Amino acid sequence: QEKLVESGGDSVQPGGSLRLSCTASGFSLDHYSIGWFRQAPGKGREGVACILTTDNSTYYADSVKGRFTISMDTGKNIVYLQMTNLKPEDTAVYYCHSGANWGQGTQVTVSS
């Protein structure tokens, strides 16, 4: 069974950092492109960052460029989202997505 599990969400102050992890089981992460999405209260789900398996290129939403970094450890079958200089508007549930699979989400709250 293919499954994704996110972890690493927490409450931090503005300017803080977090690293989210997404662990895959039942399939290899290098089979599909993988992305991080987020959904803030009362808003739709938006793409944050992704890695394309065709050439390992990465893409970021304008709102997180220069602050977030997506990376993948194929040996551990984990994809990471390193988030720095966090802002209150980054508050959301963060999900990873690969193939037809979505994780359950992990909550990130940025507040003073």
What is the string of SSEs from the N terminus onward? EEEEEEEEEEE
With helices defined by DSSP (H or I, 4 residues minimum), what is the helix count?
0
The termini sit apart by 40 Å
List segments where confidence is low: pLDDT < 50 over at least 5 consecutive residues: none
The helix fraction, in percent, is: under 10%
Quick check: average pLDDT? Answer: 95
Percent strand equals over 45%
Radius of gyration: 13 Å
Shape: globular
Number of E strands:
11
Q: Biggest sheet, in brief?
A: 7 strands, mixed
Key words describing this protein structure:
4-stranded antiparallel β-sheet; 112 residues; 0% helix; mainly beta
Give a structural overview.
The chain is mainly β and 112 residues long. 0% of the residues lie in helices and 51% in strands. The chain contains no helices and 11 strands. It has strands at residues 3-7, 11-12, 18-25, 34-39, 45-51, 58-60, 68-73, 78-83, 92-98, 101-102, 106-110. Strands 2, 4, 5, 6, 9, 10 and 11 form a 7-stranded mixed beta sheet that branches. Strand 9 and strand 10 form a beta hairpin. It is globular, with a radius of gyration of 13 Å.
